[in-house]
Amino acid sequence: DLNECGLKPRPCKHRCMNTYGSYKCYCLNGYMLMPDGTCSNALSCLMANCQYGCDVLKGEVRCRCPSPGLQLGPDGRTCIDIDECATGRVICPQFRHCVNTFGSYMCRCYKGFDLMYIGGKYQCHDIDECSLGLHQCGSFSRCYNIPGSYKCKCKEGYRDNGTNCILIPNIMIEPPDPYHI
C-alpha cells in the first residue's frame, strides 16, 4: 500500500487519511468537502440557498435583497415585497396615483389623464373627451370637459329623462274664463 497522503503535491488541502489502496480527504472545522476534493468555507452563499445572493460578514451568512422595496421573508432566504403605496411613504405628483410593483412602485396617471412631455418634464395632462369625440353625450346635449372626465348637459328646451335628453313638451294652460265663473 502506497501512502498517498505523503506524496507531493499533497492530494488533500487540509487533512489526509491513508486507506488501503487509496486515501480520504477531510476538512478543518468550518469547512466543507466539495465534490472536486477541495475544502470550501461552510459559511458560503452557495450553502445558504439565498434567493438573490448573500454576504458573509464576521463569519455569518446573511441573505440579501436586491432592492430597497424588498425585505427578507420569515425564512431568512427569500425576499418579499414591501407595498410602498400602503405604507404612505410615497407621495406621487399631481394627477397621479401610486401603483405597487415587485420591489418598487410607480406613479401612474389618473383615469382621464395622459402622460405627456410638457415644459421639459413629464406631466399628467387632462384628456379633453369632448373635443376628441370620446364622450357618450346624445345629440340633444352638450359635452363639457372636466378634469379627468366630462359631463353632458341637455340643450335648452330639453331635459334629462335619466338616460338621455328629451324634448320638454309645450303645454298651454288656458287662463280661466272670467265669464263662466
UniProtKB/TrEMBL annotation:
Subcellular localization is given as: Secreted, Extracellular space, Extracellular matrix
Segments forming a coiled coil: none
Q: What is its main location?
A: secreted
GO MF terms held by the record: calcium ion binding
| SMART domains listed in its UniProt record | EGF, EGF_CA
Q: Which residues form the EGF-like domain?
A: 126-166
The biological processes this protein is annotated with in GO are: cell adhesion; cell differentiation
Family indicated by similarity: Belongs to the nephronectin family.
Q: What is this protein called?
A: NPNT protein
| Provenance organism | Probosciger aterrimus (Palm cockatoo)
